[in-house]
Specification:
Helix content is 55%, strand content 0%. With 144 residues, it is mainly alpha-helical.
C-alpha cells in the first residue's frame, strides 16, 4: 500500500511539474533566440552608424560623388574611357557625314527646328543595333 501511495504522489508531482518545466525550457530557448537576434540588430545598427558617420565627412561625400555620379570639381575636365568594342562609327546615319560636335542629324544649312533636331538625336542614340530607323517626329501624340 505504501508503494502505491508513493507512486500516486510521484505521478501527481510529475503531472504538476511537467508543464512548468516544459515552459521553462521553451522560454529559455526563446530567450536565447531573442538575444541572438538582439546581437544581430545591434551589429547592424553599429554598421549603419559607421556608414552615417562616413557621410558626415565631406571628403567621403566628394569621393562618392566622383565615383558613383561622375561629378567633377569646377575647373576639372571629365574623361570617360569608352570600350572600343561598344563604340560605333562616328557617321551620322541621316546625312552620312562624320559626326562632330552638336546634335546628330543637324547641319549648318539645315532649317530643322531645334526641338526636332534634339528628338532625332535622342532616337538615333537609342538605337541598339546601329541600323538607321525612321526618325521623324511621332504623329498624333504617339511616342512609340
Amino acid at each position: 500500500m505504501r508503494i502505491l501511495v508513493l507512486s500516486v504522489v510521484g505521478l501527481l508531482a510529475v503531472v504538476l511539474l511537467l508543464p512548468t518545466v516544459r515552459a521553462y525550457v521553451n522560454q529559455t530557448g526563446e530567450l536565447r533566440e531573442l538575444r541572438a537576434e538582439l546581437a544581430q540588430a545591434e551589429a547592424n545598427r553599429d554598421a549603419l552608424q559607421i556608414e552615417l558617420d562616413r557621410w558626415s565627412d565631406e571628403n567621403y561625400v566628394v569621393t562618392r560623388a566622383r565615383d558613383e555620379l561622375s561629378f567633377v570639381m569646377p575647373g576639372e575636365k571629365a574623361w570617360r574611357i569608352i570600350d572600343p568594342e561598344t563604340v560605333v562609327d562616328d557617321i551620322d546615319p541621316q546625312t552620312g557625314r562624320t559626326i562632330t560636335e552638336g546634335p546628330v542629324g543637324v547641319g549648318p544649312a539645315d532649317d530643322t527646328p531645334w526641338y526636332e533636331s534634339i528628338w532625332r538625336s535622342v532616337q538615333i542614340a537609342g538605337e541598339h543595333d546601329g541600323s538607321t530607323a525612321d526618325v521623324a517626329p511621332a504623329e498624333n501624340g504617339d511616342n512609340g
